[in-house]
Amino acid sequence: MTAHRIFSWSPSAIVFDCDGTLMDTESHWQDARQRVFSEFGLRPPAGFAERAKGVHYTECGALMAEECGKPDFVDDMTDSLLRHFTALVADDPVTMPGATALVRLAARHLPLAVASNCPLDMVESSLDRAGLLDHFDHVVVAGDGVRPKPYPDVYTVAAGLCGVPPQEALAVEDSVTGIVSARKAGLRVLGTGPFPDGPGAEHADSWVANLADPDLVTWAQTRIAGED
Question: Looking at domain 4-24+95-224, what is its CATH homologous superfamily?
Answer without folding.
Answer: HAD superfamily/HAD-like (3.40.50.1000)
